[in-house]
Design brief:
It is a single chain. This protein has one domain. 75% of the residues lie in helices and 0% in strands. It has 12 helices and no strands. Helix 2 packs across helix 3 and helix 4 packs antiparallel against helix 11.
Length: 277
């Protein structure tokens, strides 16, 4: 989990370098991540994997991830890495609400309060302007919130389809279908493939794919409630990478929001890990 939560923000940091320093389109970054990730995941494919092509639910799940990955690439062009990942954590909160509404998962009053506290933490990071003198949200934080909402829906869809396919099949199909959906747009914005661009493209895709593969292996070896606290190491990784690579450090309100998100998430995970007597 520590490796996975380090690799995924590192892949996004490479994507930010591609758009910020090399002027690449966020659409190309998203497409290359899916396309190369699908190639790297080919060894996981079995003979019956492609039967999932006929299941519209698998396509829906993959398209939700396409929306999330594409949105976060646009967010990274416009906002610091730590801010993007903090706003992105609206995803687990949205997934909590969707799972209760659509999957009828049990909801307790304490966990609801903790989700609300986490939402306030996200608000401290994105700081919407309610005065009417400017846009409600900066464009970068708006895209980060959109990415989080897509990802929250993707998490709920993953729970919905948990018994429909092997974890390895779900990983491959989300990458393969995502590549198919983005190919027309990615080919339209192909860059000149210099050595640095090729290297960053490979790092962005491979780190993201390996991080998600490690997540799958982690969840086959431990309960989700036991692993949930480690998800928040992703925020620490994003802060560290933003500081080392981009010389960005969060301001005081963002630090407060990060602390509130992590505290609410850890408390919720601790409640979920308690076994009934």
């Amino acid at each position: 989990m520590f490796l996975a939560m380090s690799l995924i923000p590192a892949g996004d940091a490479a994507g930010k370098l591609m758009t910020q320093d090399h002027g690449l389109s966020p659409i190309f970054v998203a497409w290359s991540r899916f396309a190369l990730g699908a190639l790297l995941a080919l060894p996981l494919v079995r003979a019956d994997t492609f039967r999932l092509l006929a299941d519209w639910r698998i396509w829906l799940r993959a398209l939700l991830l396409v929306g999330g990955i594409t949105s976060i690439q646009f967010a990274l062009v416009r906002a610091p890495l730590a801010d993007v990942f903090a706003a992105f954590f609206i995803g687990p909160i949205f997934s909590f609400a969707l799972s209760a509404l659509l999957l009828r998962e049990p909801v307790t009053r304490v966990r609801t309060v903790l989700m609300v506290l986490g939402f306030f933490g996200v608000l401290l990071v994105v700081r919407p302007s309610l005065g009417g003198d400017g846009p409600l949200l900066s464009s970068g934080r708006s895209f980060a919130l959109m990415a989080g909402l897509f990802y929250g829906a993707f998490l709920t869809a993953s729970r919905w389809l948990a018994t429909a396919a092997r974890p390895a099949d779900l990983l491959f199909t989300q990458l393969f279908f995502g590549a198919i959906a983005l190919t027309p747009f990615g080919l339209a914005v192909l860059p000149d493939m210099t050595a640095s661009v090729a290297g960053l493209t490979f790092v962005s895709a491979s780190f993201s794919a390996l991080g998600n593969l490690l997540l799958i292996y982690a969840y086959t070896r431990a309960n989700a409630s036991e692993l949930a606290p480690y998800v928040y190491f992703q925020l620490a990784s994003a802060v560290a990478l933003g500081w080392v690579i981009f010389a960005d450090l969060p301001d005081a309100l963002t630090w407060a929001g990060l602390a509130l998100i992590i505290a609410a998430g850890l408390a919720s995970a601790m409640l979920a890990s308690r076994k009934p007597a």
